[in-house]
Specification:
heterodimer; A: about 725 residues; alpha+beta; seven-stranded mixed sheet; about 35% helix; B: about 230 residues; alpha/beta; Rossmann fold; nine-stranded mixed sheet; 5 helices; 11 strands; globular
Amino acid sequence: MSDITPEVIAGHGLDDEEYANILRILNREPNLTELGVFSVMWSEHCSYKSSKKWLRTLPTEAPWVICGPGENAGIIDIGDGEAVVFKMESHNHPSFIEPYQGAATGVGGILRDVFTMGARPVANLNALRFGSPDHAKTRHLVAGVVAGIGGYGNCIGVPTVGGECTFDAGYNGNILVNAMTVGVAAKDRIFYSAASGVGNPIVYLGSKTGRDGIHGATMASAEFSEDAEEKRPTVQVGDPFTEKLLLEACLELMATDAIIAIQDMGAAGLTCSSFEMASKGGLGLEIDLDKVPAREEGMTAYELMLSESQERMLMVLKPGREAVARAIFEKWELDFAVIGHTTDTKRMVLSMSGQVVGDLPIDPLAQSSPELDRSWTPAPARPVVTADEVPAPNDPAAALGRLVGCPDLAAKRWVWEQYDHMVMADTVGRPGGDAAVVRVHGSSKALAVTSDCTPRYCAADPLEGGRQAVAEAWRNLTAVGARPLAVTDCLNFGNPERPEIMGQFVGCIQGMGEACAALDFPVVSGNVSLHNETNGQAIPPTPTIGGVGLLDDVAGAVTIAFKAVGEALVLIGETRGHLGSSLYLREIEGRTDGAPPPVDLEAERRNGDAVRRLIEAGRISACHDVSDGGVLVAVAEMAMAGGIGADIQVPADAPPPHAWLFGEDQARYVLAVNDAEAVLADAAEAGVPAARIGVTGGKILTVGGADAISISELKAIHEGWLPDYMSAP
Amino acid sequence: MQAAVIVFPGSNCDRDVQVALAQSMGAPPCMAWHGDSDLPAVDLIVVPGGFSYGDYLRSGAMAAHSPVMRAVVERAKQGVPVLGICNGFQILTETGLLPGVMMRNAALRFVCRDVCLRVESTASIFTRRYRPGQVIRLPVAHMDGNYFTDDETLKRLADQDRVAFRYCDGAGKSDVAANPNGSLDDIAGIFSKERNVLGMMPHPERLADPLLGGTDGRPMFDGLIEALAA
């Protein structure tokens, strides 16, 4: 009787049609190892079967793009012979099951994606979405995830410089942990994953293979139910020290000319890495599983192929260069084993104890894996909420206090103080600003990096939300003075088998694509995480955008902090007082309805370019983009950062004051400037709306001379929420 | 004048110290690998921060037994100045060059932030460029910086003017809020009896460049180089 029963097939997440397809491809029944390989390679996580069709519509090209999506990470040119390599990836499912190790290995995985291409990682970011603070698991998940990210990044010695941390009941059953790494490589020393040449040695590097993480990719491609906790053994365990050794050893070996191709072992471990390398090179591989360094005796072919043990790499070496490579890896005390060689058969032949234990064609499992055209329904449009439908607060200062102290806007110092954000001694713009600024080592250039998404906008209108996520990332880079160059995306959604979820995905992609095209901000890498659902309840659509920009002169970077008293505040961009789906509406009125603010991509471009020119001309002493909470929150954040107050004047021709103060119209920035006349003249010349809205000074924030709240009181509220929440009994 | 920075597998502030020393010296220091038992003849040794050997045992415990540290201990006994920063401080206590132990931070969390320090003694080659009682700002970044020792040793450190820095607030006052890790008597750094070994948790190499937000670390390197080059 066959081992491959319907239960075994279903247990591998394969449906009837997929299994019929396997029988057709093999012309025979697969053995268990082969079935396992099909299962992970065709999982949503590895194959992108539901998303491929739509990902292809995203703009991916620009003159400065060296490598777009499809490799381990995207690469852009920053001049002077240097390139930036970056990517964002999700580790949502494992982090919910085991927050410390789930988050830690998420960081480890994305670091490997970047250094496998020859780059030294220089910055990490993390976009975290937790459930409601009232939910029983939230505190435990926050503590574990933050400790895990810190535990890994701090040890390996790459600064964690930015990210997001927000809370919403929509994530109660599925938190999001999106980790991003940015690295710098010499442009002429970039390494890719396509194998080439026949008879070349396949080398296994790094940690030994254990029984951890088997079927992690399949687990990440299914919904959770009540038994999520039972999946804990599918989460891998991280070893940042070994990763540090692997990083240094790889970079040392990359300085020689021994490597033909290299690929990290991430999701689906040895299976995915070997199939990818062979498929991209149009080759076959023969692998002797007896040669794979194993942590335990008696591991089966199935376990060796599907283990997701961390800190491992696969590499094709030039013939005759094994000794050079071996010496470097032995110096770093890492495993190094030749486990097979390349062939021209386009087949993967696995052997163990002299027997063939698997013989599979490469392409049907990799490049030509199944692609689905899932049905989708567009999200219904929501009515616009006008300002007169929203009551004005009795006390704007008190409303401001509630906003800066709400979980989403409260200071995240408790989080980023657990991350070493200064190691490598190039962190010029630390966490807490619009974008972090990291100097390119040994130069006067700097990278600006940010991660952004406003899930409540995406839920209200996926198309507009997709546009807005890209626009906000672009704006945050602009606000520090950087030229935005490219993005990586991490697309987190529910179950794609439901047309309304697929509709959210399609809408967000369309919006992102439009914004990326309009802003010359192409997508160069990314990751899709679907099935973020528990008991049929999907997360809010969350396409996280990681943006990277360049400053030619690091000394020209600006921050959000007020620097001096008596400076004029200038608001760039048009203010209509849009309150639909705003933070004000949610936090003060308890409503989550209304269309989100429309994104005018031409205005974004024009306003942002004007702001960047003003920064480059040295006319701006502080700059902050206007986002959650509107103008008053933006000014309050600038005041708190600088320890200097301000008085705001609502213009006479403005919308109702509460809509002007708290509305979330896009394409806007608040500037603190010394010479307001000159800035207003420059803005007028650029055709950009600009208005003087106040002046810095004192230790209090006032609106029209009244409604005062002191900076120290604001700060106490803003800084207090998260530490109080985490230490509450 | 020549300096050496010790590199363990898992060191991660080695390059940062190298850059800070090169800035003050005008030439880069040499980097000494953990497996080397003979160190070149140098005038200054720096044991940098990081996670030597992963620090999966007690922080610094494994590094203290590495071949290169045997050489460092020998040089220190001959009077060569040795600066241990963060993990370097942990390693120096584990070797016995400095008294006391480093416990987990009182809050049980990693802490990375700027702290204020009061310069308690300028009578050393490391602190000669600061003013007595001067309040300086440097970052900390550690999980195990909670310095502890017995009463007798603590008294001896005080009597012999061997506390280099104490955590304080911006006005120079020490209290619980200003201490990032719960260390005994707010100690942030201590000297050996002969004053040629300094261990400190804060990172002077991280604030020795105005672009990074401060330069209070720079006088330590400038002072060392000036004294040793003379």
